[in-house]
Amino acid sequence: MKKKSILIKEFHHKELVKISKTFGSQYGDLIESMIIYFKKTGINPIETINENPAVMVKVLDKRIVAFLKVQERDILKPLRNEVYQYSSEQKKQYDVISKWVQDAMVKINQFDLNRTESLTKELDKINNKLQKQKDAFLEIAELIDAKNKSGIKGTLKSLFEKDADK
């Protein structure tokens, strides 16, 4: 490795000595590290000689905040509004469908009730007719067997009672 010398002012040499003692590094190693640092970060030390890093952080912070505000304004708020509108539309559609289902259930229940009432009336009519037929058979049997000698009336009663038990 070839050694080179550089000329710097006395004040800056004293600062270099202080910095090298603070970091526990030799002058050459410290200068090499500075060159690599400036190259990697892209920082121009001539432009930032009198700037405080805290001030630079504040400027960067302001830039980040401004960027985030723009993102919020241009992307997040419109997206939030779209999600809210979509959610509102879905709720409206759900309400319409829910109302439709409720109306359908009411109509089905009413239809079922009407059908049950109709069937009950028809069954009552059939039962009334059957009771009249039963009474008529018993009356005929009584007339045929006036003194219940043949037992036809008792036989009919027992048949009707068996049918009633089923």
Brief characterization of the structure:
By secondary structure, the protein is an all-alpha fold. 81% of the residues lie in helices and 0% in strands.
Please mark out the parts with pLDDT under 50 across 5 or more consecutive residues, or reply none.
Answer: none
Order of helices and strands: HHHH
By DSSP, the count of extended strands is 0
The percentage of residues in β strands lies in under 5%
Mean pLDDT, all residues: 87
What is the annotated CATH architecture of the domain at 1-50?
Orthogonal Bundle
Give me the CATH fold name of the domain at 1-50: Arc Repressor Mutant
Shape: rod-shaped
Nearest-angstrom radius of gyration?
53 Å
Main structural class: mainly alpha
CATH class assignment of the domain at 1-50: Mainly Alpha
**CA(first)-CA(last) distance:** 118 Å
Helix content: over 70%
Sheet bearing the most strands, described?
none
